[in-house]
Each structure stands twice: as C-alpha cells, then as structure tokens.
Amino acid sequence: MTTSESVSRNAAPFLHGPEFAAMAEALRAGQYGHNTATEAFEAELAEFLGVPEVVSVNSCTAALHLSLLLAGVGPGDEVVVPSQTFCATIQAILMAGAQPRFADIDAGTLCVDTTTVRAALTPRTRAVVPVLYGGRAVDLHEIRDELNDLGITMIEDAAHAFGSRLGSDLVGTDGALTCFSFGPIKNLTCIEGGALIPRDPDEAERARALRLMGVTQPQAARIRTTDYQVHGPGWRYHLSAVHAAVGRVQLAHFPAIEKKRKALWRAYARELTALDKVGLVDVDVDRSVPFNCVVRIPHRDQVFATMRDLNIGVGVHYPPNHTQPAFSAWYRPLPLTEATATEIMSLPFHPAMTEHDVDHVASVLEQAVRVAESEKL
Ligand SMILES: *Cc1c(COP(=O)(O)O)cnc(C)c1O
Prior knowledge:
Blueprint (H helix, E strand, L loop, with lengths): L2 H5 L10 H12 L6 H14 L5 E3 L2 H11 L7 E5 L4 H9 L3 E5 L10 H7 L4 E4 L12 H9 L3 E5 L7 E2 L2 E2 L6 E5 L12 E4 L3 H11 L7 H4 L18 H12 L1 H19 L6 E2 L12 E4 L3 H10 L25 H7 L2 E4 L7 H22 L1
Helix pairs in contact: 2-10, 3-10, 4-5, 4-8, 11-14, 12-14
The chain binds pyridoxal-5'-phosphate.
Pyridoxal-5'-phosphate binds next to α4 and α5.
C-alpha cells in the first residue's frame, strides 16, 4: 500500500495471511454453524485472557444484549451509559427493553468516571455500561461495592479494548461482565463476531442457551438424538465456524498487532506534541492496545473538510447519542460530551500504516489547522 492509499482509510481490517487458508478449510469441512472450531476459538480466548469461560457470539451488540438479560435488566429499568459511544451500545439497551440514562464523560479520555456515573444513578438504575473508549480501561473500582449493594451490575462495552489492561489485569478478567467486538475494524477481527466473559459457570451456561435459541445441548449431543429441548428464550447469536477460523488465526498473531498499534499511537503522540492547537485524547498507551487515535481541535469541521479534500481518511467517533432522533426521549444536558463532540476527530489508524504514514498525516493536519485559523481571522 502506498502512503496515499493507506492514509485515505480511517480504519481497515488487517489480515496476516493464514486467514485465507483457515477460511477455505472451514468451508471445505462443510459444517458452518456453531461447531468444534467455534468451541476451540472460545477455549483459546479463555486461555489468552486467563479466564475459565468465554461465550462467543456473532457481534458485540449481541454480547451486550445478552449481558443485559443475564443481569436481569428489562422493562422499567435504566442503564447508565455514556452518550459518547457507537450507537450499538444504546440499541442493545433498548433491545433488552430498558432505557438509557446518559452519563457525561471526562474530556481528557472521553470515558465515564466514578463521578459522572454516580451523578447519573437513579432508583431505577439496574446496570452501568462503561465504554472503554479507544481501548482504554475504565476504572470504577471505587464505586463497585456501592453499585453491588444497590443491585446494579457493571457490564463493560470493551468493543475497542481487546488486549488492554487495567493495572496489570487484562480487560475481561476482573469479574465484570465484559463484551468484546470482533467486527471488521476491531483490534481482533473474525470479520463479524463478538464474545462475552461471564462471571461464573452458571452465567456461562445461561449465556450459551440464550445465544442458541434457548437450546442447551451441545451440537455433538443434539445430532445423536431424535429430539431436542428448548428451555427458554433465545436468539440466533452464535458464531459460525468460518468466522471462528478467522478469529483463531488473528488471536495467534495478536502480539504483533498489539505491538504495531502501540507503536503507531506513540508515533502520533510524538508528532503531535509540536502542534500546540491539537490535543490528543489519552488512551493510556502503556496499558492499552489502542483502537484509534483521536484529537481535539478548534474549527473541527473545517479541518475535517480540508483533510478529506486532501484524501486523508479522518473520521468522527462518535456523534453523541443523546442528541440522536432515535434517543431523544432520554436527552439530558451533558456539558462535556457536547463540548468535546464538536472538537473530536479520528486520524487514520490501522495496522497496515507505517510511521511514515503517521508523519504524513501529522503534517497535513498541521497545514489544515493553519488554513482553518487563517480563514477565521
Ligand atoms: C463496534 C462497537 C460496538 C458493536 O460491535 P459489533 O461487533 O459491531 O456489534 C459496540 N460498541 C462500540 C463502542 C463499538 O465500537
């Protein structure tokens, strides 16, 4: 890829090569549904994370939906969630029949913190869903006991944060219900996919039934009987063997991706220190596997337009949800979310980029900021 091709994309899937053969083999095997390849992927994820159980599903949206159901969230309940997230987080709350209660964020990290979560709690709060924006772990330990005592479950939207750590613990290992995305542009891709980390074996079993239409016998047992039992509600959320085959290759190569994403983010941080109008949203790179690189800039819309004209794949992650038409019933003022929403811009960030690409983006950004400022004089 040339610099111009590479930096014209904001994000892109990254394949190591063996995914092609792995997919072909899964296709040749002729059983595409949930099967032993899916279970092997789950076991490998569990080993990587150091947790007893991982339940794979076909998206993080599905993982969030099931986690809310596992936490007993339903009609009449409120779920505290940042407005600064992908709309899927909010849709999952509505899918569970509950209502979002939007929380404000810290302007430096774009994540909720103990203060903004506490300020959003009401007597109807049943769950809190921090979003690990950019791959950064969100530390709510200070209020964890308090939430527990109130019967409030913490469910992490860790769509960005596979491989990241809180202190020395990998995200997903410290006892919260955690949801990962393995979508096309995430740190690890199955093309489409996701996983949830249950809190105990009983929850794992319930999650496995919910993702497979309420059927609890494993496939191997099912095909040997003339009957099967449906034990309760369920969705068609399982991860196909073909997608799992891609995920297994990606997981085996994950250390290289971790290294690459950290190096790219650090290269941006170095280049951008010279630009005094540009603030970098901090992902705690020493402990995180960065998902994106987001800056805060004045005259954002104009800088964005200039960079797009120069074929730089800038993006905005995300337009806030509390001002979306679909979620307007739950609007409440969120000063920091609203202030940062007009300033944030995501720079091209994906593992095929080089440090040379980063230099190029940084110099175009400098130029675009200069143009925007001179036009404002
Ligand atoms: C990608 C993403 C999701 C949804 O993940 P899917 O696997 O696409 O369903 C949820 N939350 C955030 C923050 C995301 O970036």
